[in-house]
């Protein structure tokens, strides 16, 4: 793990919430504020802050409706949780319960219980966590981005409208959004990502990759020693692939409307090359990797290829 990079990310995350933290008291804090105004009236915010005991190597499950989720690895002894509740009824917000409970398998489950068991229009919650580690994470939001940094185990991240970002993750990742960008950097295990409308950016991947978007550019780079396979599809966008040394198998690249070209690829045999199609075979396996877009170019090159001058 790149400690310097992790600290930069963590410091940025903490700085972004300094103004909120200053308003909170130790233990469980509450603060009311008003912001924004629409046809339903002004939006009221209520901040909650809590610290709960940490259990090393346990999993994390976070659920939020109409709000973002962030979980960041930080060197501390407990789990810090900050929640921004918002709505238009101060009394209702006062009756909201923020749960942080250990399940039977020791998973820390964080979720919001709204009065009457139902969230009303215009209500929501953002959830920010700092914790020493987590072995496995689930994060679900109906409307908001999801960010995890420095955690481990299998990560399952779903949001109906927002971006998903994963960095410095030691494990596998499944991410799905109906409308937003997907980003994964320095993930050690298998990556599976789906977006119906957004870019997908995967950098420095160590494991197999499957990525699909119906509308957006896809960029993938693999680390040396990553054998694949890689399966990428976009119905409307270009695809760029930077391969690390050690990839094996058959690489099929295809576009319905655009060009396919390879740059600086060594150690591969050409199987087929033509308009909108390129097929290469790397020794060591016959497993098929597929790169396909219906509208856009496809570029494949070695991650060690020197950029062209100018």
Kindly summarize this structure in a few lines.
With 310 residues, the protein is mainly beta. Helix content is 7%, strand content 53%.
- SSE series: HHEEEEEHEEEEEEEEEEEEEEEEEEEEE
Helix content: under 10%
Q: Low-confidence runs (pLDDT<50, min 5 residues)?
A: 1-28
Number of strands: 26
**Sheet of most strands:** 13 strands, mixed
Radius of gyration: 22 Å
Strand content: over 45%
The structure class reads: mainly beta
Number of helices: 3
The largest beta-sheet arranges its strands as: 1-2-5-8-4-10-12-14-16-18-20-26-22
Please state the average pLDDT score.
88
- Rough outline: elongated
Task: Please give the alpha-carbon distance between the first and last residues.
Answer: 34 Å
3D architecture notes:
The protein has helices at 3-15, 18-22, 90-94, and strands at 29-38, 41-53, 60-64, 69-73, 78-87, 97-102, 108-113, 124-131, 135-141, 146-149, 152-159, 164-169, 173-177, 182-187, 191-195, 200-205, 209-213, 218-222, 230-234, 239-243, 249-255, 260-263, 268-274, 277-282, 288-293, 298-302. The strands form two sheets. A 13-stranded mixed beta sheet has the order 1-2-5-8-4-10-12-14-16-18-20-26-22. It contains three helices and 26 strands. The model is unreliable at 1-28 (pLDDT under 50). It is mainly beta and 310 residues long. A hairpin with a 5-residue loop joins strand 6 and strand 7 (108-113).
